[in-house]
Amino acid sequence: MALVDERTIHVAAGRGGDGVVRWRREKYKEFGGPAGGDGGKGGDVIVRGVRDISYLGKYQEGQQFRAEDGASGRGASQHGKNGKDLVIFVPVGSVLTHVESGRTYEIVREGEEVVVARGGRGGFGNEHFKSATNQAPKEATRGGVGERGTWHIELRLIADAGLVGLPNAGKTSLLNVLTNARRKVGAYAFTTLEPALGVHYDIVLADIPGLIEGAAQGKGLGHAFLRHIARTRVLVHCVSLEEEDPARAYRTVRREIAAYNPALAAKREILVLTKSDTVTPEAAAEAAARMRRVRAGEGPVLAVSILDDDSLKELSKALHAVLKEEDSSASMG
Ligand SMILES: Nc1nc2c(ncn2[C@@H]2O[C@H](COP(=O)(O)OP(=O)(O)OP(=O)(O)O)[C@@H](O)[C@H]2O)c(=O)[nH]1
Ligand SMILES: [Mg+2]
To answer: How many angstroms separate the CA atoms of 217 and 6, rounded?
Structure first.
């Protein structure tokens, strides 16, 4: 099922409750003064960020959202109940545009809120109008109308993990089998010219063109497209087992990444030896062991084939685990 990354919705905040005209009844007294309470405030419509990129799919295009009205005031100076706020959850990364005014907001954190329609004020009861010169006001006001509006919600995904490697390493093939993406794959270099995103459960993967030796000097497609993965949290470094010297291929790409931006090179990395079906299981295991010795820093090393579901599950597990570690180290500062 394709990811829903856009919705237009209509929102209406609650109307304020009316103020009322009531009179106090007291024993032994004919007239006890005004006692009409104020109306309650209408509920607001609030948008709140959640960490679930599929959330927009729960809403219909053009869906109407309405918060509760405030209740009217009552006698004995009782305030009417406020209308309940209505909360609409949207994925973190959503950009909200108020269609009528063009005003925009971005939800960047979980729990972040924007009031997209304010509830109407409650009206005043007659008690409110009591003064030295008017002991028996007969007036009350009506509640205010709630705001209404049309909002466009657009999800701008930020990739969690970026696929890097030489041309032909199998990056796009992995994107296609792990996500809803349907990108072009080819048995030649530089099939991918534009970055693409795909969603694997709750993980956003970015696929970019291949890097070659000298990319920093403009060879191949250069390296400027690396900016598309500058904000990812994890690199998925793909090295084909069809390479004569996988360790060399690995180091070449590492050098180009470091030349582009040392901060990118410092990110956590999952090393994926791709096309494992083209070699014997023993050869794949041996290559993985060798790569563990030559690789930069720590992190999983996996042999994967798009034809081997178990290997894809291992990769999925590793991705989730590394991103989870990333999360907890980020929250510790
Ligand atoms: N046997 C086998 N072939 C694979 C596997 N993964 C990818 N390939 C093949 O490898 C070739 C390159 O795959 P792509 O996914 O286009 O590689 P890429 O890294 O995206 O290449 P560029 O976009 O050019 O950088 C294609 O012919 C794929 O069919 C695999 O697991 N096993
Ligand atoms: Mg590709």
So the answer is: 39
> Are 91 and 21 contained in the same domain?
yes
pLDDT band at residue 318, thresholds of 50, 70 and 90? very high
pLDDT attached to residue 51: 85
Q: Could you say which DSSP state residue 102 is in?
A: -
Query: End of a domain among 97, 125, 156?
Result: 156
The atom number, within ligand 1, closest to the CA of 189 reads 24
- The pTM is what? 0.72
CA of 177 to the centre of ligand 2 (A): 13
> Three-state secondary structure along 137-190?
CCCCCCCCCCCEEEEEEEECCCCCEEEEECCCCCHHHHHHHHCCCCCCCCCCCC
Q: What is the pLDDT of residue 148?
A: 98
Residue nearest atom 23 in ligand 1 by C-alpha distance = 192
The range of the structural domain enclosing residue 94 comes to 1-156
Q: How confident is the model at residue 127 (pLDDT cuts 50, 70, 90)?
A: very high
Helix (H) or strand (E) holding 117: strand 113-117
**195: pLDDT strictly greater than 90:** no
Q: Are 35 and 166 found together in one domain?
A: no
Q: Which residue's structure tokens are 């969603």?
A: 199
